[in-house]
Design a protein that fits this description.
Elements: H1 2-9, H2 15-68, E1 85-87, E2 97-105, E3 108-122, E4 125-136, H3 141-151
Antiparallel strand pairs: 1-2, 2-3, 3-4
Length: 152
Protein backbone atom coordinates (compact mmCIF):
# COMPACT_ATOMS: atom_id res chain seq x y z
CA UNK A 1 0.00 0.00 0.00
CA UNK A 2 2.92 2.27 0.35
CA UNK A 3 3.49 2.34 -3.41
CA UNK A 4 -0.13 3.23 -4.04
CA UNK A 5 -0.13 6.07 -1.47
CA UNK A 6 3.07 7.49 -2.95
CA UNK A 7 1.57 7.59 -6.44
CA UNK A 8 -1.70 9.00 -5.16
CA UNK A 9 0.02 11.65 -3.00
CA UNK A 10 2.23 13.02 -5.78
CA UNK A 11 -0.61 13.99 -8.14
CA UNK A 12 -2.17 17.54 -8.00
CA UNK A 13 -0.89 20.95 -6.94
CA UNK A 14 0.50 21.97 -3.61
CA UNK A 15 -0.83 24.93 -1.65
CA UNK A 16 2.29 26.98 -2.42
CA UNK A 17 1.90 26.39 -6.17
CA UNK A 18 -1.74 27.49 -5.99
CA UNK A 19 -0.82 30.67 -4.09
CA UNK A 20 1.90 31.53 -6.63
CA UNK A 21 -0.52 30.96 -9.54
CA UNK A 22 -3.20 33.11 -7.88
CA UNK A 23 -0.63 35.88 -7.26
CA UNK A 24 0.40 35.87 -10.91
CA UNK A 25 -3.26 36.02 -11.99
CA UNK A 26 -4.00 38.87 -9.56
CA UNK A 27 -1.02 40.84 -10.88
CA UNK A 28 -2.17 40.29 -14.48
CA UNK A 29 -5.75 41.36 -13.73
CA UNK A 30 -4.60 44.49 -11.91
CA UNK A 31 -2.44 45.43 -14.92
CA UNK A 32 -5.43 44.93 -17.23
CA UNK A 33 -7.63 47.15 -15.06
CA UNK A 34 -4.94 49.85 -15.16
CA UNK A 35 -4.83 49.66 -18.94
CA UNK A 36 -8.62 49.88 -19.11
CA UNK A 37 -8.57 53.07 -17.00
CA UNK A 38 -5.93 54.54 -19.31
CA UNK A 39 -8.04 53.62 -22.34
CA UNK A 40 -11.16 55.24 -20.88
CA UNK A 41 -9.21 58.41 -20.06
CA UNK A 42 -7.73 58.56 -23.57
CA UNK A 43 -11.16 58.05 -25.14
CA UNK A 44 -12.64 60.85 -23.00
CA UNK A 45 -9.82 63.22 -24.00
CA UNK A 46 -10.23 62.37 -27.68
CA UNK A 47 -13.99 62.93 -27.44
CA UNK A 48 -13.53 66.37 -25.83
CA UNK A 49 -10.93 67.36 -28.44
CA UNK A 50 -13.35 66.31 -31.17
CA UNK A 51 -16.12 68.37 -29.55
CA UNK A 52 -13.72 71.33 -29.38
CA UNK A 53 -13.23 71.19 -33.15
CA UNK A 54 -16.99 71.31 -33.71
CA UNK A 55 -17.48 73.98 -31.04
CA UNK A 56 -14.90 76.27 -32.66
CA UNK A 57 -17.04 76.45 -35.80
CA UNK A 58 -20.01 77.51 -33.70
CA UNK A 59 -17.94 80.12 -31.84
CA UNK A 60 -16.57 81.51 -35.11
CA UNK A 61 -20.10 81.76 -36.53
CA UNK A 62 -21.13 83.69 -33.40
CA UNK A 63 -18.11 85.97 -33.79
CA UNK A 64 -18.89 86.53 -37.47
CA UNK A 65 -22.59 87.27 -36.88
CA UNK A 66 -22.52 89.19 -33.61
CA UNK A 67 -19.10 90.80 -33.32
CA UNK A 68 -17.64 91.44 -36.75
CA UNK A 69 -20.93 92.20 -38.52
CA UNK A 70 -22.00 94.76 -35.91
CA UNK A 71 -18.58 96.36 -35.48
CA UNK A 72 -18.78 100.11 -35.12
CA UNK A 73 -16.61 102.80 -36.62
CA UNK A 74 -15.19 105.73 -34.68
CA UNK A 75 -15.80 109.36 -35.63
CA UNK A 76 -12.82 109.42 -38.00
CA UNK A 77 -14.07 106.30 -39.79
CA UNK A 78 -11.60 103.84 -38.31
CA UNK A 79 -12.93 100.57 -36.97
CA UNK A 80 -13.10 100.38 -33.18
CA UNK A 81 -10.66 97.78 -31.82
CA UNK A 82 -12.07 94.44 -30.78
CA UNK A 83 -11.91 93.35 -27.15
CA UNK A 84 -11.32 89.72 -26.12
CA UNK A 85 -14.50 87.73 -25.74
CA UNK A 86 -15.17 85.17 -22.98
CA UNK A 87 -17.83 82.52 -23.49
CA UNK A 88 -18.55 80.73 -20.21
CA UNK A 89 -20.43 77.99 -22.02
CA UNK A 90 -20.95 77.12 -25.64
CA UNK A 91 -24.45 76.20 -26.71
CA UNK A 92 -24.58 72.44 -27.19
CA UNK A 93 -21.23 71.89 -25.46
CA UNK A 94 -21.76 72.44 -21.71
CA UNK A 95 -18.32 71.15 -20.66
CA UNK A 96 -16.40 73.51 -22.94
CA UNK A 97 -15.47 77.17 -22.45
CA UNK A 98 -14.11 79.56 -25.06
CA UNK A 99 -11.93 82.65 -25.09
CA UNK A 100 -11.72 84.63 -28.32
CA UNK A 101 -8.99 87.18 -29.03
CA UNK A 102 -8.56 89.37 -32.08
CA UNK A 103 -5.42 90.66 -33.73
CA UNK A 104 -5.67 93.22 -36.49
CA UNK A 105 -3.10 93.89 -39.17
CA UNK A 106 -2.64 97.53 -40.18
CA UNK A 107 -1.35 96.45 -43.59
CA UNK A 108 -4.58 94.53 -44.27
CA UNK A 109 -7.43 96.53 -42.71
CA UNK A 110 -10.17 94.17 -43.86
CA UNK A 111 -8.74 91.09 -42.14
CA UNK A 112 -8.64 90.04 -38.48
CA UNK A 113 -6.81 87.03 -37.05
CA UNK A 114 -9.18 85.37 -34.62
CA UNK A 115 -7.71 83.05 -31.98
CA UNK A 116 -10.17 80.77 -30.20
CA UNK A 117 -9.05 78.84 -27.13
CA UNK A 118 -11.42 76.06 -26.18
CA UNK A 119 -10.82 74.77 -22.64
CA UNK A 120 -12.28 72.04 -20.44
CA UNK A 121 -11.52 70.35 -17.14
CA UNK A 122 -9.88 66.96 -17.26
CA UNK A 123 -9.34 65.28 -13.91
CA UNK A 124 -9.45 68.70 -12.23
CA UNK A 125 -6.85 70.25 -14.55
CA UNK A 126 -7.76 72.76 -17.24
CA UNK A 127 -6.64 71.65 -20.68
CA UNK A 128 -7.52 73.01 -24.07
CA UNK A 129 -6.78 73.61 -27.70
CA UNK A 130 -6.14 76.81 -29.65
CA UNK A 131 -7.50 77.45 -33.11
CA UNK A 132 -6.66 80.38 -35.39
CA UNK A 133 -8.64 81.69 -38.32
CA UNK A 134 -8.35 84.75 -40.54
CA UNK A 135 -11.72 86.42 -40.95
CA UNK A 136 -12.93 89.19 -43.19
CA UNK A 137 -14.39 92.19 -41.34
CA UNK A 138 -16.22 93.52 -44.35
CA UNK A 139 -19.91 92.85 -44.51
CA UNK A 140 -21.03 90.35 -47.09
CA UNK A 141 -22.54 91.63 -50.31
CA UNK A 142 -25.98 90.29 -49.44
CA UNK A 143 -25.90 92.06 -46.08
CA UNK A 144 -24.79 95.36 -47.64
CA UNK A 145 -27.55 95.10 -50.26
CA UNK A 146 -30.14 94.36 -47.58
CA UNK A 147 -28.99 97.36 -45.52
CA UNK A 148 -29.07 99.62 -48.59
CA UNK A 149 -32.60 98.48 -49.44
CA UNK A 150 -33.79 99.04 -45.86
CA UNK A 151 -32.45 102.62 -45.95
CA UNK A 152 -34.42 103.46 -49.13
Amino acid sequence: MTARSQVHGSSGFTLVEMLVAMGILAFGFSALIGLMNLGVSTRRTAELRNQAVYAVDQVLQTVRDQVLATRQRSENGALISLEPLELATIVGYPRLQARVTFQEDAARPGLVRVTVRIAWLEEGIEVGEEFERVMNTWKSLSRRVAEARSKQ
